[in-house]
Specification:
11 helices; Phosphoribosyl-aminoimidazole Synthetase, Chain A, domain 2; 6-stranded mixed sheet; 7-stranded mixed sheet; single chain; 60s Ribosomal Protein L30, Chain: A
Length: 328
Amino acid sequence: MGPEDLAQVLRHLPKNVDDPNLLVGLETADDAGVYKINEETALVQTLDFFTPIVDDPYMFGQIGAANALSDVYAMGGKPITVMNIVAFPINTLNSSILADILAGASDKVRESGAILVGGHSIDDEEPKFGLSVTGTIHPDRIRSNAAAKPGDKLILTKPIGVGILTTAIKNGSIDDDSLQEVMQVMATLNKTAAETMENYNVNACTDVTGFGLLGHTLEIAKGSGVGITITNDAVPVLSRAREYAEQDIIPGGTKKNLKWLAGDVDYADDISELDRLVLCDAVTSGGLLISVPAEEADALQNDLLAKGVQSAIIGETTGDNAGRIQVI
């Protein structure tokens, strides 16, 4: 389901009562909801869960937690409490598997500085796991995905190609080095990146997940009323993602992303079909996409690199072609 399909579903929901304390709600395609408590504090709320994408249950728990926590980081918030969401076939799978999933998530939550306060579980034929996360943020420091300014630079804090490699995991064709690489990327919190950008005048931010790099870039373009240019060669990609894509190891979600983005993206003639698929690859627990004034971009990028965050300046926003992307 792409953003346009999601919008068609959400439009059937009743509109929120006019409440000045609701700072970010359903009206935008932001990563989390934000509700103002007082002049100093607003709550950031999000929820995410999915089926296993790796065989190691402990690692699956870590990835599930990192993925859910990421939405709070993308808003510029600090996670404070989490609740587990569990669906598990307790009669057909050993309970030790569930214990390992929860242990992985617990360790990642502890790393974030948040605390586990509860959760809910159901008996289900297919395992599913994730978190409901609550964070806090100053009402004046919200990092929406709809506030980029013309002339900003875009910084991406994790490589893409995750969906391609997790598909290789599912069909048993992934090599061990690639497996370790993609698991490490997915399990890495966006905490350091979020804390680092607090010291800069970031205009907009989102995290890159299921709609792919270009899908989430388009949300910034449309929400902010800017055009965006992405430099293909500058985008960091997991080591063997293109190699696996050449073997048609590509998730269905990635192909759908490419299709629904077709009317909103202009590609240079030398951008191959394979590169277009990689740019649209459906990501799990991806990095932050940060829109920052050009004069601060190099300083932020150097700061991120110095703190061990895999990041790159991959493009810029423009005052032309509002709501569209150009890939060069």
